[in-house]
Amino acid sequence: MKIVVTSVLVDDQAKALAFYRDVLGFELKHDIPMGEHRWLTLTSPGDPDGVELLLEPDVHPAARPFKSAIKQDGIPYTSFGVEDVHAEYARLCAAGVRFTQPPTAMGAVTTAVFDDTCGNLIQIAQPA
C-alpha cells in the first residue's frame, strides 16, 4: 500500500492553483471538471508519477471551522520536504509569500511555516 493522492482543503481552487503551481512550483497533473468544482491535482517538479496533491474545495460544513481552528492555533495543515529550507525560504519570501515562522532548527529537522493564501498554514521541512 502506498499514498497516491493527498489533499489540502482550499477556499478557492483557481487561487490555489495559481499559488501552488506558479509560486510554489508544483506541476499540474489533472484538471477535470466535476460539476461546480474540479479534480485538480499537482505533483512535485520532476516527479509526474509521484504522489498527487489534490486541491480539495473546503465546502463540507466541517472543513472551514477545522481549517480556521488549526490555523488560529498555528498548526500547519501539511508539510512539504525541501532540500534546503533556508534557500526555499528566501525564494518564497522574494515571491511575496508570508511566513509565520522563519527557518527554525528543531532537533533532527529545520522547518519554516507559511500562509498558502487559501486558508492554511503549510510547513516546509529539511532533515538535519
Structure in words:
By secondary structure, the chain is of the alpha/beta class. Helices cover 24% and strands 41% of the residues. It contains three helices and eight strands, in the order βαβββαβαβββ. It has helices spanning 13-23, 63-72, 85-94, and strands at residues 5-10, 27-34, 37-43, 52-57, 78-81, 99-106, 109-115, 121-127. The strands form two sheets. Strands 1-4-3-2 form a four-stranded mixed beta sheet, with helices on one face. It has a four-stranded mixed beta sheet with strand order 5-8-7-6. Strand 7 and strand 8 form a beta hairpin. It is globular and about 45 Å long. The two termini are 28 Å apart. The mean pLDDT is 97.
Q: Separation of termini? A: 28 Å
The main pleated sheet reads as: 4 strands, mixed
Taken from the alpha-carbon principal axes, the silhouette is globular
Question: Radius of gyration, rounded?
Answer: 15 Å
Q: In terms of structural class, how would the helical and strand content be classed?
A: alpha/beta
How do the strands line up in the largest sheet? 1-4-3-2
Secondary structure: helix percent: 10-25%
Output the helix-strand order. EHEEEHEHEEE
**Oligomer category:** single chain
- Low-pLDDT segments: none
Mean pLDDT across the residues is 97
**What count of helical segments does DSSP give?**
3
Strand % is 35-45%
Number of strands: 8
